[in-house]
Design brief:
alpha/beta; DDH_dom; 6-stranded mixed β-sheet; Diaminopimelate Epimerase, Chain A, domain 1; inorganic pyrophosphatase (n-terminal core); about 350 residues; Phosphoesterase RecJ domain-containing protein; DHHA1_dom; Oligoribo/pAp-PDE_c-di-AMP_PDE; 6-stranded parallel β-sheet
């Protein structure tokens, strides 16, 4: 069984956005030879994970492959992302084959991010199948048999676009919308975009993306979201001495705050908290169940919040990262302050 790190130039259309140094030809050959492909994103999938998986699945379907897309948990797709599944390719985790012949894992910084579907990787390899890992996180290990790994790419969607070019699959509105959603959100709605990012966005728009409608999906929330926001922002605290004097602003979202809203509705709270000019680091701890928290970290300066997240069992990017924690809200916030130094 080979362990091919995919390694040559990306197509010129995406080269400037970081999709370099990978053998897209080898990955394309692997997928052309496949007849049945299972694509997995990480648990609690975001737009980049789900959009990348669905875009590639739609392209493979055009090539006559049988495809399915899934993720480990939760059981439902976030409301804002449901419209991306235009062809009904999403299946529940229980319907994922025990040992897929060809498995593609997207946007997972490690196999642990597959949650309860982590066993599919080992099972596929043990059965002589192939596991293609496509990811843009820093330090992603080579846990597959084949890899497209580029931590300079702004989104996994960019790497998928390069692979579609290699497969010679033309963009259509459905595929382009899935990719655009990933680029849009992983660049912080283009806050961290480069000129190359905008060139890619223009290409996707030209392929039929309705950017206004898609952006509206991410902007809309139920009325209860306003009440939740007032409560959560009202308990925000500023710690000027944290992060070596660069400052930390933090807040918590308790289960009792989420009446009428879902965990997906609170994902953007960290970006509002980050707007504080007195702190370079923002942290929001969201209670998933009693004593279990998912924490979002953001940085606007030179603080590496990925290093903080990794030290606490998570991961991500230099300016956007996260981890899961257990204990009280006070315990969680204390661990963040210690990790920041």
């Amino acid at each position: 069984m080979s362990d091919n790190h995919v390694g040559v130039d990306a197509p010129a259309a995406v080269r400037d956005c970081g999709a370099m140094g990978s053998d897209y030809a080898a990955a394309a050959d692997l997928l052309r030879a496949a007849t049945d492909v299972t694509l997995l994103g990480h648990v609690n999938p975001d737009a980049d994970a789900l959009g990348s998986a669905l875009a590639l699945a739609l392209a493979l379907k055009k090539l006559g492959k049988r495809t399915r897309v899934s993720f480990g948990s939760p059981d439902t797709v976030p409301e804002v992302l449901r419209g991306l599944d235009s062809d009904g390719l999403l299946v529940p985790a229980c319907d994922v084959p025990a040992a897929p012949a060809t498995l593609v894992v997207l946007d997972c910084g490690s196999d642990r991010r597959l949650g309860p579907l982590i066993d599919r990787v080992a099972a596929t390899r043990a059965a002589g199948g192939r596991v293609l890992v496509i990811d843009h996180h820093v330090g992603t290990p080579r846990f597959g048999t084949d890899h497209i790994l580029d931590d300079t790419a702004v989104a996994t969607a960019v790497l998928v676009l390069a692979l579609l070019d290699e497969l010679d699959v033309p963009l259509d509105p459905a595929i382009a919308t899935c990719l655009y959603a990933g680029v849009l959100t992983d660049t912080g709605f283009f806050r961290r975009a480069t000129g190359a990012t905008h060139r890619i966005a223009a290409r996707l728009l030209d392929a039929g993306v309705d950017a206004e409608e898609l952006s509206r999906r991410f902007d809309e929330h139920p009325f209860a979201w306003l009440r939740m926001l007032a409560t959560v922002l009202g308990r925000a605290e500023l710690v000027p001495e944290a992060a070596g004097g660069r400052g930390l602003v933090h807040t918590t979202v308790h289960l009792s705050d989420m009446v009428g809203v879902t965990i997906d509705d609170v994902e953007g709270v960290v970006d509002l908290v980050r707007s504080s000019s007195e702190a370079e680091v923002a942290a929001v701890a969201k209670e998933l169940e009693p004593g279990v928290w998912t924490v979002s970290l953001r940085a606007v300066g030179d603080v590496d919040v990925r290093a903080v997240a990794v030290s606490l069992g998570g991961g991500g990017h230099r300016r956007a990262a996260g981890f899961t924690a257990h204990g009280t809200a006070e315990d969680v916030l204390a661990s963040i302050k210690r990790a920041l130094g």
